[in-house]
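Purpose: get a first structural picture of the assembly so the mutagenesis plan has something to point at.
Setup: two entries, given in the order below. No constraints added.
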Amino acid sequence: DVKVTQSSRYLVKRTGEKVFLECVQDMDHENMFWYRQDPGLGLRLIYFSYDVKMKEKGDIPEGYSVSREKKERFSLILESASTNQTSMYLCAILERAGNTIYFGEGSWLTVV
Amino acid sequence: KNEVEQSPQNLTAQEGEFITINCSYSVGISALHWLQQHPGGGIVSLFMLSSGKKKHGRLIATINIQEKHSSLHITASHPRDSAVYICAAPPNTGNQFYFGTGTSLTVIP
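Result (C-alpha cells, whole complex):
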C-alpha cells in the first residue's frame, strides 16, 4: 500500500509566522498535491507538482508557496500565516496507473 | 460552476436506515471514486468504478456513465458509518481531480 505521511498533525501558530507543512511519499509517484479542506467548501487545490522542482498553481495559491527538491517530498509553505489560513491541510499523491489518489492523514493548522 | 455536484450536503439517519448519497458530474471521466473521511481523520478510498455497480459489505456504489451520475448506498446503517463521504472524478486529461463538497452523514443509535 502507498503511504503518504504528513509531518505534523496539529499545529498552532501565531499570525505572521512562517509555517512549513511537509509531505513524504514512500513510492516513486510524480504527482503530488496540497489541498485545504473547509466546512461547506470541500477540498480546494492549493498547489500541485508533477516532478522535482516543478510546481503548478491550483485554485487558491495566494498566501502559499511550495517546494519539491526531492521526488518523495512536497512541502507547503505559508510565508506569513494569517487567521484565514486556519484549516485542515491534506497532501495527496496520484497513482496514474490505477488513476487512484492517496491522502495523508491531514494537518490541522490553527493560526491565532 | 462545480464540475462535481453532491447531494445532500448533510444527512442524519436512524441506525438501520437505508442511505443514498448522489453525485453528478459534468466533466468527461473514465472512472469515479467514492471516498470516506471519519471525523478528524484522513481520507480513504472506498470504491473506484467505471461502470455498473460495486459492493463492499453494506456499501454499494453505482454509476451511469451516460447520465454522468453515481450513487453511494449504505444498507442497514450503523453509527460507525458516520463520516463525510466525497465523490471524486479524475479527468480524462490532466492531473487534477475534481471533488464534490462532501456529504456529512450522522447515524444516530
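Chain A touches chain B through 23 residues (CB under 8 Å).
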